[in-house]
Write a structure and sequence with these properties.
Structural class: mainly beta
Number of helices: 1
Oligomer: single chain
Largest sheet: 4 strands, antiparallel
Strand content: 35-45%
Order of helices and strands: HEEEEEEEE
Radius of gyration: 24 Å
């Protein structure tokens, strides 16, 4: 005869195995649904201004402001295993020292399928700064709209919804913000 502890151990081992198999099936089923998203991204204006550094008031630097139009439909990415999406606009450029930089300019978290259609006309959420303090002799920047799918169970997946057709040059710095 088995004791009550042996019976409880057997039943709990069976249930935990069933739950783990079910979670594994949910995670694997997410790979069956791949969406090919197409969005539009237009950079309306890019301005560079002289500014004082926040932490070092005697140091001058240049900051860049970006205005953009973007539209994309992320509803095909939502299924039973999608918890939320992280959508972000990223600028990629090479500075004067030859270092490749990737900077997030704008982001949004999409938690529901109803809010997954994005049509935005606005300016950057985060200002663009270079570590060297200047955008002179910087190669043109390529802008792209990317996303990150965060599932309930499984691995994170990344993708790109839109990209600018050609790189955008940084203009010469102005003295005043207008």
């Amino acid at each position: 005869m088995h004791s009550i502890y042996a019976r409880v151990n057997g039943v709990s081992a069976l249930w935990s195995t069933c739950v783990m198999v079910l979670l594994g099936a949910v995670a694997l089923s997410s790979f069956l649904f791949n969406a090919d998203l197409k969005g539009n991204l237009d950079i309306v204006s890019l301005k560079v201004f002289h500014s004082k550094a926040r932490r070092y008031p005697f140091r001058n630097e240049e900051i860049s402001f970006v205005k953009f139009n973007l539209s994309a439909d992320f509803t095909p990415l939502f299924n039973w295993n999608t918890k939320q999406l992280f959508v972000y606009l990223e600028a990629e450029y090479t500075n004067a020292q030859g270092v490749n930089n990737t900077v997030v300019v704008w982001d949004r978290i999409v938690r529901r399928k109803e809010g997954a259609t994005i049509d935005v006309v606005q300016k950057d959420k985060y200002r663009l700064r270079d570590l060297s303090g200047s955008f002179s002799n910087v190669l043109p920047a390529q802008y792209s709209l990317k996303y990150n799918v965060m599932p309930y169970v499984g691995v994170l997946s990344y993708g790109e919804a839109a990209r600018t057709v050609e790189p955008i040059d940084f203009p010469d710095a102005r003295d005043s913000v207008s």
